[in-house]
Amino acid sequence: MNKKEAIVRAAIQVFREQGIDKTKISDIVKAAGIAQGTFYLYFPSKLSLMPAIAEVMVEKTMTIVQETVQVNASFPVQLTQIVDAIFMVTRDYHEIQALIYSGLASTEHLKEWETVYAPFYNWVSERLQEAKADGIIRQSINVDPTAKLVIGLVESAAEQIYLYDSEQEDQARIQKSEVNIFLKHALGIRE
Amino acid sequence: MNKKEAIVRAAIQVFREQGIDKTKISDIVKAAGIAQGTFYLYFPSKLSLMPAIAEVMVEKTMTIVQETVQVNASFPVQLTQIVDAIFMVTRDYHEIQALIYSGLASTEHLKEWETVYAPFYNWVSERLQEAKADGIIRQSINVDPTAKLVIGLVESAAEQIYLYDSEQEDQARIQKSEVNIFLKHALGIRE
Amino acid sequence: MNKKEAIVRAAIQVFREQGIDKTKISDIVKAAGIAQGTFYLYFPSKLSLMPAIAEVMVEKTMTIVQETVQVNASFPVQLTQIVDAIFMVTRDYHEIQALIYSGLASTEHLKEWETVYAPFYNWVSERLQEAKADGIIRQSINVDPTAKLVIGLVESAAEQIYLYDSEQEDQARIQKSEVNIFLKHALGIRE
Amino acid sequence: MNKKEAIVRAAIQVFREQGIDKTKISDIVKAAGIAQGTFYLYFPSKLSLMPAIAEVMVEKTMTIVQETVQVNASFPVQLTQIVDAIFMVTRDYHEIQALIYSGLASTEHLKEWETVYAPFYNWVSERLQEAKADGIIRQSINVDPTAKLVIGLVESAAEQIYLYDSEQEDQARIQKSEVNIFLKHALGIRE
DNA sequence: AATGAATGAGATTTCATTCAT
DNA sequence: AATGAATGAAATCTCATTCAT
Hints:
4 copies of one chain form a homotetramer.
Chain A: H1 3-22, H2 25-32, H3 36-42, H4 50-68, H5 75-105, H6 110-133, H7 143-162, H8 169-186
Helix pairs in contact in A: 1-2, 1-5, 4-5, 4-6, 5-7, 5-8, 6-7, 7-8
Chain A binds a DNA duplex through helix 2 and helix 3.
């Protein structure tokens, strides 16, 4: 069994349950079923876990997105699917997103953050590029920065709902609909 | 002199300088010029400062926004001014925003958060309402949820820039321009 | 209203509820309905309360004893009444007795202790003196030390019961009966 | 080397020297020769030491009693030896007895107290049983409750002397003599 | 006499980290 | 590689006491 992976898994679980600040290394090792000292064979500190956690989270995000978004669907449909996917990830992992955010921010691991998140930005960027090439969205769009804006917009919209309560599916449906309309206009979608 | 206020002021300052994790209560009281025990007269812990800090931050935001946005300007101009203002606040206080976010999230003060942010949401909502009444933006807009989307979008765009480095004015200018165009289409602004 | 008395009353109440160690001066003043600083106008410290509390306790004890013991009763009857009275006091105030004991012990107020308890010792001593004069108990008895032994014996017997639970009336009845027989022989009572 | 035992040993020593109130945990760990944090590995607080201390104290008492009381001596002689032993223990450890008493009383460890004291009660009870079988004491005696009365009587008599001053050997001799006579009659000893 | 906010020395407590096994 | 008891520096927190009002 891979101890490093066990540590990361356990950390995600414990962080979600009690927050990053209140979590002691001893909580993590207990959850991982390993000895206190073993932790230090793999990570020099609590914060150094963050990039590894971030990586796992981005993988999860990508998995959910790719499971949700149909390759052959039209761009407008794909866009609503992306929104669905991001809402889903936010609902299930918003505590982790927050802690990655503040955990990375409070260290010198910041540069790794961009690298880690890059695959998701790129993937959306590519979708936008295709849509632009197909003439489905306005031609004035710069795909790279716009991809980031879209992801930021949707994530923040989802957080506004799920920050308080992850059981808000009614609210979430309304918010998603608002986001879709907002995006349709922002991107100048022609149907 | 109001000690409670002094504590909050000092906490914001010290948190900005050294981050929330590295800040000891003793740093805060030193900066506030009060005795260690006095802190506990007003706050039971470091995290319980968060709602009070959030309140001050929203006040600061409102002040900057109202100083930046001209009352008589047209809505499109006001919108770019709102974007400028949010970027400004984010640049100067992104550490605080991050910590409010994770600080609130890791406690049970979540419900207070909506209340605290409400004035800002409302203010933008009113601007949108006026613009809608004047026929400047598309009539299909629901002003309340859209106000939240707009603020979330701009904040997340600003954070993408300033999270790494608050000296990125060139990058910021480009990002703001992207946001403005994005918003112009999203809101269906007619000039 | 007499503040000093209010403080002593409040202290007894709070000490009984939470023990001497866990009781802060702030708890006492809160219960007494006075300001923190006022305490120090009457007592220089928490432990300096002890002699005053002890005095009140001995008064209570004497009151109960004198209400229970009939002046005209024969000595053997009076003795069982004394046992009843001490059991009663111990049941209701054993926490206080313990804290007076340790409270006085941990200070330099020890000398006051003897003075404070003296009236009770003396009263029992007088009863023994009378009984001796009446030839009801053995003539070899030294009344003063024996009075102390009797009180010590009965108190310790009562504590053995009530230390754990003040609702032990069945157990208490048995124990009292044992004490009475023990004392009857110890004192050489002739009936 | 057993750290838990070292802590209890050190605590008894330091408590005797400076009293329970004035003793800091840091004093205990210093005396035990361990690190501050190690204390918390074994005990959550100063008061939680009490049951462990009580146990050691009862062991010490038993040891002294068994060293003092001669197995082949007649019961009357054994009884005076028991009195001697209890006076000795009280002289040397009255501070500890007081603190066990109030320390146990102020916590929820009360139930353990009976268990801890049981061996001593039983041992005296057995002596009484033998004496009763040998017809040396009155046949109406119930050995178990009487054992407790005897121990309580002697302890309280000893405390009356040594509470104030452990150098009172003259007083102690007189008091012991009083106790012996008192007991001789109470138990109906036939010589 | 009475108040109670403020104090700060000093206690408790935590927990990341080490290291002998 | 793995362990986990032990560490102790460094933090939090308490609360008796003061003192300006």
